[in-house]
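Kindly inspect both lines:
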Amino acid sequence: MYQELLQKLGLSLNESRVYEALLHLGETNVSKISIKSKVHRRNVYDSINKLIEKGLASETFVKGEKLFKPIDPERLKEIIKEKETELEYSLQDMKKLYKSVESDAEAYFFRGIEGFKNYLQLILEQKQTVYFMGAKGFWLDPRLQHYLRHFDKQRKERGIKFMHLFDHEVKEQKPEILKLVGKPYKFLPKKYSSATAVDIFGDYVVTFVGVKPGELYEEPLQFVLKSKILADGYRKFFQFIWNNCKNS
């Protein structure tokens, strides 16, 4: 009759059956409990012990016989309150864990100059500092000049800052980019130059394929990963490299 309710309150099936049997029988022995509850005698002992631990049953000795009786069902309300208190105590830590685990993660790519413009739009939407690793100065690509004037105006209005770690070659081959983007910037050691670049901003990490000093390849490709955890990690990588690079 009450087994389903008792199980919802945290009792096992056998505990629910035994407790309900005790409510019907009052003070009684294991044999009668076993018959009434239809729980094997051996399992009755286990369930009784657990009910005693939970404050739902007690044991007595009458004329040398061990008897058991139920505790007032009002105790069930106390058990619920105790669980609520335990939950409340741990809830804040659980919330922190929940928020630390990414659920809104995405992976896709942009292709071509129009795709590159989509990447620039993401920067404006995030409104946070952009960290450039292996920067090539591809803002100088002639196909971007008209769009970049519009973009640069908006990013300044939104207070978006840039931090550049340029490839070594940019200093010699495209020095004009330095005036365009402004400080702060540093240069990677020559042996660490590559044909790729990585930008981090907000919750995004964007990896570029097909870039070289001062321009994009004919069909540039950007791999976009949206993940707060990943972006936070890459920002730490950037900071370590930044701290270990010489000033320009």
Remarks:
- The first strand starts at residue 57 and ends at 62.
